[in-house]
Amino acid sequence: MESPEMTNPAGDMVAEASPAPPELPKVGARYIWFMVLAQFGVFMAFITPIAISLAIRVQTIAPGHAEYLGYITGTGALFVMLTAPFMGVWSDRTRTRIGRRRPFMIGGMAVGVVSLVWMAVAPSIVLLGLGWVLAQWGWGTVLSNLQISTADRLPESQRGKVGGLNGFATQIAPVFGVIIAQFFTGSPLLLFLVPGAVGVVLVTLFVTLVHEDDSRGLPKEQLTVGRLLRKYLYNPAHFPDFSWNWLGRFLFYFGLTLNTTFTAFFFAERMDVTVDKVAGIIAALGGIGVLATTAGALGGGFLSDRLRRRRAFLVLGGAVMAAGMTTMAFSASLPVLIAGSLVVSLGIGLFAAVDQALLLDVLPEKETDAGRFMGITGFATSIPQAVAPLVASAILLIGVSGGQKNYTLLFLVAAALVLLGGLVILRIRSVR
To answer: Does the keyword Disulfide bond apply (predicted)?
Structure first.
């Protein structure tokens, strides 16, 4: 006999005392490695413009107006934040012979390639910004559907491992992208298209070589505008573990953004030099930091699967980050600054990889609404990225006068938030 159901105000169907869904079968090495390669490719195509290509184009089109880069990237992030749940709902309800996710990977890749060409030839800042919005939409759609695919396919016993490997791939991809881009700075078209070509090849391998079941036999749902808008909301009381995970992720990324927004200015202040003098140090530290982040991602991901524990690793990740940020807050020399920064990087990798696995553990309605809830999860990172820089600017002015900035307070607040983000995860009851 089926359990009774109720509908909440947001349109969520909630089963009372419904049994846990059966464990998914393990995926093979083909799925895992082509997923890792595909995410590597997306980050090559998608993050390289943020790292270098967009800055070069802004400098070419509008010399002396570096602030335009912030306007462009902020607009793109806002667009994705507002459209991600809609794209997820659309993906959930797509019925094709090649499945629900692959059509969006193909379409997103096409839009992404067009956007790269657009940005390479854009004659004005407005058109460059529009190209970046298209890039965010296209490549972001590819990435989100790759991640939704992991929700569709990965059993609990493999989520930490795959999360760690994906974390490793997405950390090193931008480094490779910047290295490649340096050879094409004289050609705007190649500057964007060469990293983009890597993305196209690797995503195409996943789309063509990884099977996805025909979705035409799945139940269909008619969506009105009102019902679609309600999909942006849900009742947290009906999915408490998902809600605690969302809050923990929100606090973590808010603290992380507070920590990273003014890094260059913070280093310059502590070293008593101008900002341009610390660029080389930060670049070198970023390269070493990738190794620390990767160690945290791979170690945490694999161990969380082996030990069948998630929460302890997330608490540890938040605590490690908080320790690193506190060290930086009270640092007075370059070696201590570097040590604190590397500890932060280790914590980032540990938290992010295991949190991705935990999200898949607690994601509601995976069979029908995985894309919708993955889109809602995106708010937990996009809102901090938009709001935290403004909050950081206000914190820097507390308790100081003249031209001074209170970096110590800023980093202590950031440490408290990431620590709290880890501790909030302890409220989750369905996952150990």
So the answer is: no
Q: Which CATH superfamily is domain 236-427 in?
A: MFS general substrate transporter like domains (1.20.1250.20)
Helices (H) and strands (E) in the chain, counts: 15, 2
CATH topology of domain 26-216+225-230: Growth Hormone; Chain: A; (1.20.1250)
Compute and round to an integer the Cα radius of gyration of the chain: 22
Contact predicate 375/88, CB 8 Å = yes
Residue 252, H or E segment: helix 240-261
**Residue-range domain boundaries for the chain:** 26-216+225-230, 236-427
What would the pLDDT profile of 18-49 be if each residue is shown by its tens digit? 445 667 899 999 999 999 999 999 999 988 88
What spatial distance separates the first Cα and last Cα of the chain, rounded to whole Å? 30
295-332 pLDDT, tens digit each? 998 999 899 988 888 999 999 999 999 999 999 999 98
Global confidence as pTM: 0.78
